[in-house]
Amino acid sequence: MDIKQYLTDWSASYRSDLVNNILPFWLEHGLDRKFGGVYTCVDRDGTLMDSTKSVWFQGRFGFITAFAYNNIEQRAEWLEASKSCIDFIIDHCCDENGRMYFEVTANGTPLRMRRYLFSECFAAIAMSEYSIASGDKSYAERALDLFRLILRYKNTPGLLEPKYLPALACQGHSLTMILINTASRLRAAQDDPMLKAQIDESLDALQKYFIHPEFKALLETVGPQGEFIDTCNGRVINPGHCIETSWFILEEARARGWDNDLKQLGLQIFDWSWDWGWDAEYGGIINFRDCRNLPSQDYSQDMKFWWPQTETIIASLYAYLASGEERYLQIHKQISDWTYSHFPDTEYGEWYGYLHRDGTVAQPAKGNIFKGPFHIPRMMIKGYMLCQEILNK
């Protein structure tokens, strides 16, 4: 492999695809120029199917457009889109306690609240990134205030409704991992000791509780002290989440001068999760596995969703940057070849989100409450940045 040429080509591809395909699709079909914010429930050609707004995606697109502004090109329309999403969150998406809804109507009437804190996490990173882009430090302060609220709800028993009744005491991987990235993104705008403290806490929890070497796996649900729960839910491996966690860890290792322990942790999680996730028969990263190799309970267990592929593309580049081992570029090529031959829609633009195990399209819509302009453009921005960083070393 001609590594320099390989990375040069991918760097150019990521930037071009982001600027000429992904962001224009969502600015044209998703951005709500009447009420503000972004729609995500659009059909293959961008036709609006449902005006319900995902609060997740107000923060996610607010982040992406500011992140692109900061790292790709300073386009006014991207900064305006970011502010539109953030203003919509501030004006319409919070209850009297500061918690954020999960779904609202087009004009911001609340429809649904969930027990999870992900809407708040994505809003916080949007505000932080917009602060960097705009130079308005008040958004960084607002992001820190929101992070304090997240920690209060996470750490105060009884504030969040538990997922299970007391008969099943457990903890989940998702919030533990997302708080690493959330704190990292906030730190880029304005540092605060609580950010590193939460990153340290999450890293410690991953190692103490969620990593189970007996299965060579990072599990999604464990007991309060990391106990293995031998049920269908307790045996779940989500390769996409695990691979995403691996690059969050590698990013933090780099922030700490390539801390060797963190680097090895990130690489180990990536290696294990690649082995669990890669579908040797059909290609692509599969949705769910059972750590005992029993049948997975989830109905979408053998499908190929868009986001585990994008996380693997980012993580393989991070793994190469961290280790210098060419095998990670071979993995990058393997996942990229499969992803780019199955997900992009060459007729209408953007990507399909949901494929059957064999790579055929399960449904052609470009977005819904859960899929929209986040994982794909984030992959392209991070991919461009990582290729450039490796080439400049």
Automatic annotation (TrEMBL):
One GO molecular-function entry: N-acylglucosamine 2-epimerase activity
Enzyme Commission code: 5.1.3.8
GO terms, biological process: carbohydrate metabolic process
Any one Pfam family match given in the protein's UniProt record, by short name: GlcNAc_2-epim
Top EC class of this enzyme: isomerase
UniProt keyword terms in alphabetical order: Isomerase
Highest taxon above the source species: Bacteria
Entry annotated with the keyword Isomerase: yes
Keyword Ion transport: no
Gene3D superfamilies for the chain: 1.50.10.10
InterPro entries, per database record: 6-hairpin_glycosidase_sf, 6hp_glycosidase-like_sf, AGE/CE
PANTHER family, sorted: N-ACYLGLUCOSAMINE-2-EPIMERASE
Family: Belongs to the N-acylglucosamine 2-epimerase family.
Official protein name in the record: N-acylglucosamine 2-epimerase
Gene source species: Hoylesella pleuritidis F0068
Organism ancestry: Bacteria, Pseudomonadati, Bacteroidota, Bacteroidia, Bacteroidales
